[in-house]
Amino acid sequence: MVIKSTRLVELNFLDASEWAAKYIRNRIIQFNPGPDKYFTLGLPTGSTPLSCYQNGDLSFKYVKTFNMDEYVGHPERYHSSMWNNFFKHIDIHPKTPTFCDACEEKIQAAGGTELFVGGIGPDGHIAFNEPGSSLVSRTRVKTLAMDTILANARFFDGDLTKVPIMALTVGVGTVIDAREVMILVTGAHKAFALYKAIEEGMNHMWTVSASQQHPLTDATLEPKVKTVKYFKALTLVHNTLVDPVQYQEKEVQKNGQTLGNGWGCSRHSRQ
């Protein structure tokens, strides 16, 4: 399942990863980055987006990335994870990726984040904004909940004593400030968190629910997630968002329409 700041897309795990990768590709291509115009991309470091990273096939030469979080005292964990799973496979400049330290200032200096990609935990946390976090929070150090420590033990040979108990994380407000937010949700164990994210009101105990306050969000105005047939019926519409850009332009021109900024329709671009 993919929650985007403008819609909710119902897909299985592999399809969601491929869809997300193609959407990021199209978003960067249509932004048309250059030496004086970098595309700013916020990235998560959990396990859900790994397949998304492995689906990419475009230039990141003029892309700046900001990582959502890193362990206090063990920043190399996420640095090496992002390098091995993503950065070393693309043409991004080695000094371009930015991790959490001074993140707020660097995002502002870059003109804000164009697209923030994220995953969630079973308890609905986004980045390391654990249950109870402020929905307007900024980058800071957080103490990890036991559920998060247990979930991440698999990255430390199953040894709970090795799992860091604190992390530096972007705030919920930092994420929501992005012009677009795309959240990947996979696995039955996250179904209740997804329900809390879009079917109920915003709640600081389920920090992903803050996505409802993004200016472009309309997922909560759609029928409930349990009406799966509805979302499957939108598959053709969602697939047009990840068609090759040239194909999109031909279809638009054929229909006598004009491409706007962002994703072929100006209403998808936050001012």
TrEMBL record:
<dbReference type="Pfam" id="PF01182">
    <property type="entry name" value="Glucosamine_iso"/>
</dbReference>
<dbReference type="GO" id="GO:0006046">
    <property type="term" value="P:N-acetylglucosamine catabolic process"/>
</dbReference>
<dbReference type="InterPro" id="IPR037171">
    <property type="entry name" value="NagB/RpiA_transferase-like"/>
</dbReference>
<comment type="similarity">
    <text>Belongs to the glucosamine/galactosamine-6-phosphate isomerase family.</text>
</comment>
<dbReference type="InterPro" id="IPR018321">
    <property type="entry name" value="Glucosamine6P_isomerase_CS"/>
</dbReference>
<protein>
    <recommendedName>
        <fullName>Glucosamine-6-phosphate isomerase</fullName>
        <ecNumber>3.5.99.6</ecNumber>
    </recommendedName>
</protein>
<comment type="pathway">
    <text>Nucleotide-sugar biosynthesis; UDP-N-acetyl-alpha-D-glucosamine biosynthesis; alpha-D-glucosamine 6-phosphate from D-fructose 6-phosphate: step 1/1.</text>
</comment>
<dbReference type="InterPro" id="IPR004547">
    <property type="entry name" value="Glucosamine6P_isomerase"/>
</dbReference>
<dbReference type="GO" id="GO:0006043">
    <property type="term" value="P:glucosamine catabolic process"/>
</dbReference>
<dbReference type="GO" id="GO:0005737">
    <property type="term" value="C:cytoplasm"/>
</dbReference>
<keyword id="KW-0597">Phosphoprotein</keyword>
<feature type="domain" description="Glucosamine/galactosamine-6-phosphate isomerase">
    <location>
        <begin position="36"/>
        <end position="206"/>
    </location>
</feature>
<keyword id="KW-0413">Isomerase</keyword>
<dbReference type="GO" id="GO:0016853">
    <property type="term" value="F:isomerase activity"/>
</dbReference>
<keyword id="KW-0119">Carbohydrate metabolism</keyword>
<dbReference type="GO" id="GO:0042802">
    <property type="term" value="F:identical protein binding"/>
</dbReference>
<keyword id="KW-0963">Cytoplasm</keyword>
<keyword id="KW-0378">Hydrolase</keyword>
<comment type="subunit">
    <text>Homohexamer.</text>
</comment>
<comment type="function">
    <text>Catalyzes the reversible conversion of alpha-D-glucosamine 6-phosphate (GlcN-6P) into beta-D-fructose 6-phosphate (Fru-6P) and ammonium ion, a regulatory reaction step in de novo uridine diphosphate-N-acetyl-alpha-D-glucosamine (UDP-GlcNAc) biosynthesis via hexosamine pathway. Deamination is coupled to aldo-keto isomerization mediating the metabolic flux from UDP-GlcNAc toward Fru-6P. At high ammonium level can drive amination and isomerization of Fru-6P toward hexosamines and UDP-GlcNAc synthesis.</text>
</comment>
<dbReference type="GO" id="GO:0019262">
    <property type="term" value="P:N-acetylneuraminate catabolic process"/>
</dbReference>
<dbReference type="GO" id="GO:0005975">
    <property type="term" value="P:carbohydrate metabolic process"/>
</dbReference>
<dbReference type="GO" id="GO:0006048">
    <property type="term" value="P:UDP-N-acetylglucosamine biosynthetic process"/>
</dbReference>
<dbReference type="InterPro" id="IPR006148">
    <property type="entry name" value="Glc/Gal-6P_isomerase"/>
</dbReference>
<dbReference type="GO" id="GO:0004342">
    <property type="term" value="F:glucosamine-6-phosphate deaminase activity"/>
</dbReference>
